């Protein structure tokens, strides 16, 4: 999902591969699509529990603008999350990237994560004892399906040791956001530590509930095109590096501590606030549409 990641994960660099580029690879690997909830089921459950698309927008006066789209679907027994990000600085393109995460719907843990930007890409593959990171480049056009990109570098990283039984949970940034709905984060003071898979090894992040409140959110309902203002019970999560000596690189490649607002029951993402590299001041990336 995202302005926040594309500014740091891969940076700007040409035109990103199309959404179909990533999707074509996913379909080759996973087969025919599975069905999602019907529109009637979504209406009965409300917008938060069964969304298929979220759109976010960010503006910083006339300096910075960002647009993020997240699409979630079920495919051949896997949960698939795709994101597209566009960001401009002083009107010039700063970033354009796309990602795709494939997850186990029963555990929320990732199988595979792709990130593509211009002629650069990475593929993260998660195994039972660790994960690998491959650097990718297109053989010809960056619009080619990702299975036609070639791997020219591969690194392997073990999962960190766990104090408790079981392997520590390691995610990509986007998979971690989806996993929040399973986490024991219900009231101020609740806290967990999760690991993010990076190109230099897994990094721990502390996620703490700092505030619970009732508020209102205004967004476009993508199923009707209407603009709605609805009451929301939401949690503010503070996300910060958890390892002593870890540098100041925050969650989603932001700088320092990042704040995430989520709907309290489903942990659906509503807003991310933080400091983005090259952009003055703090940036608020807020939900603009849901469907």
In a nutshell, what does this entry contain?
By secondary structure, the protein is mainly β.
Name the structural class.
Answer: mainly beta
User: How many individual β-strands?
Assistant: 15
- Strand arrangement in the largest pleated sheet: 11-12-13-14-15
Mean pLDDT level: 81
Instruction: Extract low-pLDDT stretches.
Output: 1-45
Provide a count of the helices: 4
Q: State the domain count.
A: 1
Shape: globular
Termini separation: 16 Å
**Biggest sheet overview:** 5 strands, mixed, barrel
SSE order, as H and E?
Answer: HHHEEEEEEEEEHEEEEEE
Cα radius of gyration in angstroms: 18 Å
Strand portion: over 45%
Fraction of residues in helix: 10-25%
Topology of helices and strands:
Layout: H1 3-6, H2 19-30, H3 39-45, E1 53-60, E2 64-75, E3 78-89, E4 92-103, E5 110-117, E6 120-126, E7 130-138, E8 149-158, E9 170-171, H4 173-179, E10 191-198, E11 201-221, E12 227-241, E13 255-263, E14 269-275, E15 282-290
Parallel strand pairs: 9-10, 11-15
Antiparallel strand pairs: 1-2, 1-15, 2-3, 3-4, 4-5, 5-6, 6-7, 7-8, 10-11, 11-12, 12-13, 13-14, 14-15
Question: Could you characterize what this model shows?
Answer:
By secondary structure, the protein is mostly beta strands. It has one domain. It is built from four helices and 15 strands. Strands 11-12-13-14-15 form a five-stranded mixed beta barrel. β1 and β2 form a beta hairpin. The longest helix is centred in the N-terminal third of the chain and has 12 residues. The protein is globular, with a radius of gyration of 18 Å. It starts with a helix and ends with a strand. The N terminus is likely disordered.
